[in-house]
């Protein structure tokens, strides 16, 4: 019976049913099968009654205000002033500005949209090919879910019941590696193709002026991360305050929106947050059913019978996640796969913090994976670059992220060292 239900779930996805409908229908059928249908609704309500989940809508709303409010422009101008004069400078501006924006945003797609709107036209004007410009923004945008605060880490932390602040720390070193490697490729490729540089030197006073204009944006990561690790605020409280600060910066400092536009922008943020919360609401009871049905224990027993080692499991899981990432967006993959695989981590002696970073790097790659990688479509639409050209331009960055995935998978200390140093477990 369970096999038939899961085949039905896959069939719903295959015909294009929304993920919340596929998960919700599957959950209802499974609970009905166990004569516990009434508990499905109660489970749904109970799972939403989660303090960490409160952070999700606030982070989404903050990202919306930042995207619409002129904050991205300030970051790009500051980065341009310092690194725009060297070969490949505009591309380096892209990775630098995306990394800074990611420290406030938590969303890859929002980062790609906000930065792509400014950077892709600028790179095209500087003589960069459309494919390369799109590849830079699409790959740099994926930092939105690896650099804290990351919505993907928040959702994973809720699903895995692990410390979200420790997950945020775990993503820092892999993110730095990604920035360094992509920056190196940008410089090499720009020199190889002899891309032009801006020969007009920017006076130090102007550099300082643009830097000062961008400084207010640092209030957002300072509030989120400083409040969180300083013990002054919980995750949900810091997320709420960051949304308020993002609004005031957009309205009064960068003046990207007006008072009249406030509710329209807020409505967009609330709608985007509602999409996430609906998926979470129907998926968590589904995950609880998997746990309570004993399916997890059966999978553990099967792994024991097959004598599967941890490294083999991680290799297989990476392949599965890479495949699913070609067809499903980040949240869908998390909600479908995590309830199945999380019970297997302890028997295989896999650190759930390390595993969380591995999963998020997989989701970064998913955002660049044809045919349905969201960042591909975002940058294609923004830059008016044909999708085929975007895919070709993104391929080198896709391969770079694959190398990063292998490193994160089999060198766990890249993910676990910083959390153990700053937030050691008792």
Any key phrases for this structure?
426 residues, single chain, mainly alpha
How would you characterize the overall build of this protein?
This protein is mainly alpha-helical and 426 residues long. Helix content is 76%, strand content 0%. It is built from 22 helices and no strands. α3 crosses α15 (262-292), α10 (164-170) crosses α22 and α17 packs parallel to α19. The two termini are 43 Å apart. The mean pLDDT is 84.
| Overall body shape | globular
Largest sheet: none
Tell me the fraction of residues in β-strands, as a range: under 5%
Structural class: mainly alpha
What integer is the average pLDDT?
84
Number of strands: 0
Relative helix content? over 70%
* H-E string: HHHHHHHHHHHHHHHHHHHHHH
**Count of helical segments?**
22
Kindly report how far apart the N and C termini lie: 43 Å
Radius of gyration: 22 Å
Short description:
Helices cover 76% and strands 0% of the residues. It has 426 residues and is mainly α.
Secondary-structure blueprint of this entry?
Blueprint: H1 2-14, H2 19-33, H3 37-48, H4 55-68, H5 71-83, H6 89-105, H7 108-125, H8 130-141, H9 151-160, H10 164-170, H11 172-192, H12 204-214, H13 219-229, H14 235-253, H15 262-292, H16 295-306, H17 310-325, H18 330-341, H19 352-366, H20 374-383, H21 387-410, H22 413-422
Helix pairs in contact: 1-2, 2-3, 2-15, 3-15, 4-7, 4-14, 4-15, 5-6, 5-12, 6-7, 6-8, 6-11, 7-8, 7-20, 8-20, 8-21, 9-18, 9-19, 10-22, 11-21, 13-14, 15-18, 17-19, 19-21, 20-21
């Amino acid at each position: 019976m369970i096999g038939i239900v899961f085949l039905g779930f896959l069939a719903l996805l295959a015909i294009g049913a929304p993920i919340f409908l596929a998960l919700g229908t599957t959950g209802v059928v499974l609970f009905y099968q166990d004569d516990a249908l009434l508990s499905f609704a109660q489970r749904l309500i109970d799972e939403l009654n989660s303090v960490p989940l409160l952070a999700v809508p606030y982070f989404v709303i903050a990202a919306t205000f930042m995207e619409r409010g002129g904050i991205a422009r300030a970051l790009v101008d500051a980065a341009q002033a310092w690194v725009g004069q060297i070969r490949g400078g505009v591309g380096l501006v892209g990775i630098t500005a995306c990394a800074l924006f990611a420290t406030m945003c938590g969303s890859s797609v929002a980062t790609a949209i906000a930065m792509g709107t400014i950077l892709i036209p600028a790179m095209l004007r500087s003589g960069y090919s459309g494919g390369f410009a799109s590849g830079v923004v699409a790959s740099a945008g994926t930092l939105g879910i690896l650099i804290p605060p990351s919505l993907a880490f928040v959702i994973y932390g809720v699903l895995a019941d692990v410390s979200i602040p420790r997950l945020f720390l775990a993503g820092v070193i892999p993110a730095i590696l990604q920035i360094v490697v992509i920056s190196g490729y940008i410089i090499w490729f720009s020199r190889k193709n002899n891309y032009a540089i801006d020969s007009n030197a920017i006076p130090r006073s102007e550099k300082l002026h643009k830097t000062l204009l961008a400084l207010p944006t640092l209030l957002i990561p300072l509030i989120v991360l400083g409040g969180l690790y300083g013990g002054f605020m919980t995750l949900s409280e810091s997320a709420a305050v960051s949304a308020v600060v993002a609004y005031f910066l957009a309205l009064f400092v960068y003046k990207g929106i007006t008072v009249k536009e406030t509710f329209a922008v807020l409505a967009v943020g609330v709608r985007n947050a509602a999409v996430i919360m609906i998926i979470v609401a129907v998926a968590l009871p589904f995950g609880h059913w998997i746990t309570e049905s004993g399916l997890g224990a059966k999978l553990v027993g099967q792994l024991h019978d097959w004598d599967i080692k941890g490294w083999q499991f991680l290799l297989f899981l990476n392949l599965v996640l890479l495949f699913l990432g070609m067809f499903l967006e980040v949240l869908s993959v998390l909600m479908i796969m995590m309830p199945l695989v999380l019970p297997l981590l302890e028997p295989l002696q896999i650190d759930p913090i390390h595993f969380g970073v591995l999963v998020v790097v997989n989701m970064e790659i998913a955002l660049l994976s044809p045919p349905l990688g969201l960042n591909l479509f975002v940058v294609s639409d923004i830059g008016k670059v044909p999708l085929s050209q975007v895919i070709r331009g993104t391929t080198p960055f896709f391969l770079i992220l694959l190398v990063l995935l292998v490193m994160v998978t089999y060198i766990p200390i890249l993910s676990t060292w910083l959390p153990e140093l700053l937030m050691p477990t008792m």
